[in-house]
Specification:
heterodimer, A: Enolase-like, domain 1, 3 domains, five-stranded antiparallel β-sheet, 11 helices, B: DNA polymerase, domain 1, five-stranded mixed β-sheet
Amino acid sequence: MKASAFSYARATSVANALELLVAHGDRAKVLSGGQSLMPAMNLRLISPELIVDIGEITELRGIAVRDGVLSIGALTRHVDLLRSPEIAAHAPLLTEAVAHVAHPAIRNRGTLGGSLAHADPASELPACMVALNASIIVRGQTGERRITAGDFFTGIYETALSAQELLVAVELPVAQKNSAHFFHEFARRHGDYAIAGVAARAIVQGGLFTDLRTAFFAVGGRPILAKAAAKLVNVGITPALLSEASAALGEELDPQDDQQASAAMRQHLAKMLLARCASALLGRPDLTAGGPV
Amino acid sequence: MTAPMLISLEVNGECVDAHVLPRLNLADFLREHLKLTGTHIGCEHGVCGACTVRMNGEIVRSCLMLAVQTHGASVVTIEGLSDSGEIADLQAAFRDRNALQCGFCTPGMLVAAQDFLKQETEPDRERIREHLSGNYCRCTGYQAIVDAVETTARARMGRKP
């Protein structure tokens, strides 16, 4: 189908975009890369009256590292993340995860800010932001708010961003010396939405996790930072302990059935992912040698 | 603001000025306004890849872009790639290997395959499959398409197929 008629404004600056958003509120939609917005409009799932195109606002582009903080502008495209040496050095989880986002033609247009503001529960980047404990920076006419990724995502396609605000950047702590990461997702085909996935960042010292953040996606309305991972921190991990943590993870998750997978299957896959994640991060193949846990 | 807007862009090397409605997507602009019907429209929501074109040197889905977003851009369609001879060897390889049947996906497939061949010189079948994973073909089963891209990559490397 074709999108219904709308008005179009090419924002010249963040201030200009905010003026338009304040004036039009819920009737306006921000167009960034358009790789989620355009399908939704073509399918007539949404019919905004005004499109505010922020694609030309150069201040929203770019990747910078300062004082141990990695800043990524909202308009940074998936392909930019994938090719950036700064991202590979300071947030290698993102480099790995972005390769799973859709296909090259989509990655050439889709942006980080767009993906986060859209907040599809099956998408990779929101989970990465939660795993990496990112701050999402949003700007309104009265100033900036910094929102922890864990608080930013509130439900299916729902975030803490208001209709009068613009997501301008994210900030992440750079990867520490003992930092390790893990990313895996199950999808029917390469580039499809995940059926279940995990993005994880850990600090490993002397064969133990001193920190482990595992964010599961496509198994709930928003990325879920597993509380069960705490059971694996500062303790020698045995297969029995891992299966206890997996069982606790199963209790935490309440996935939905859909045409891709049943809730039980998603729960099973998430438990498998936790086991594989711990095993891979610690370099302990023995932890998953006994087969599915 | 729902009124037509003036856009100026380059399509296949030629300057184009047009008045377009904001809702018009790039695929429809190419097909309906410029009569460049090689760009096909399948799903209209970015899944099938039939509408893939090159914009500013990179492949994009023309159904997921508004024509007004291409103001100042350079767009190359399958007609441009074909007429310039840039993909003559790839087209010949598709024909030789029967890598098309109904032909609906072929323009998008060629544009995406040429994008792969420009970026990667090694004819790695897994990488070819990954790069073409956003382009659906309902006839061939993909084997022949991957063969044709692989053959072209080898030929361009100066090796025998």
